[in-house]
Structure formats: C-alpha cells, structure tokens
Amino acid sequence: MITYLGLGSNLGYREANIAEAYRRLGSMPGVRVTKRSSLIDTAPVGGPPQGDFLNAACELETTLSARELLAAVLGVERAMGRKPGVRWGPRIIDIDILLYDESIIEEPDLVVPHPRLTEREFVLGPLAEIAPDLRHPGTGRDILSMYRALLATNEAPSATPE
Known about the structure:
By secondary structure, the protein is α+β, with helices and mostly antiparallel strands. The protein has 4 helices and 7 strands, in the order βαβββαβββαα. It has a single domain (2-115), classed as 7,8-Dihydro-6-hydroxymethylpterin-pyrophosphokinase HPPK (Alpha-Beta Plaits, 2-Layer Sandwich). Strand 6 (105-107) and strand 7 form a beta hairpin. It is globular, with a radius of gyration of 16 Å. The chain starts with a strand and ends in a 7-residue tail after the last helix.
C-alpha cells in the first residue's frame, strides 16, 4: 500500500527529530520510505503559545494495515519521548497518517484521510511537493489544486463590515 505521513517537530533539534523519525520508520519491517518533502518552518496552529514547527511529508510503501501503521507511528512517537499533553501543544515529534492508499477510514481513533488535511498549508505544501497529482479519496481533487486553493483563500483580504 502507498501511504502518506505528515511529520512535525517544535521542541529540541527539530531537524534532527524529523531525521530520527524517518530513520525509525524506515527500519520497521513492512515499511519503506520512498519520498520525502523539503522541511518547512511554520507557525503553530491552535494550542498554547509555543515555538514554530518544522514540518514535512513522506510517502511510504507498506505491507502494514492502517491500524498496524497507526500503532507503529505511535510507537515511534513514544520511543522518541513524546508524552501526552495539551491538545496542539509543543511536541518533540508528531506523525500523522494523512492518506492510506485510497482508503476512507472513520473509526474513533483512526480517521483517514486526515480530517484537517485540506485546511492546513503546512500539510498540503509538503504533500504537494512529493505527490502533486495524488487525488484525495474523499473529494477526488488533486493535492496541488487543493493547496493552491487554500493559499488563495488564505491570501484573500478579509471582509470588513461597514
């Protein structure tokens, strides 16, 4: 299965944290990292005041089921020192399953495609870099056009009532 992950870090040596996450993901049986985006620096979205994030996306080939991949990703986060904390708070590493093949999964602890994928520049930008023609299984739109539309929306002047 081809799947896409989003990675982010805003604690410690952010670039080293993402590199370590890639190393750990790539050393798992049944997982091969096939593409990596550039790293981008972004302001945090939501949560308490905190430092900027370094974000990236990657493509994987995996023989793991979506549930097995979720367990593996959570294991990487724990092994790297991520602890439960404030929602959208600072973290040493954050790894999200963005897309899992063409699957749509809606379970209490596993939702794919990622529910906020289409709302976040820091996810769509890196994903568009490595898979611009990839189609979102829920909307049928390609990642690059969704990213461009989001950029245009975010750059539009806000309406002010008169």
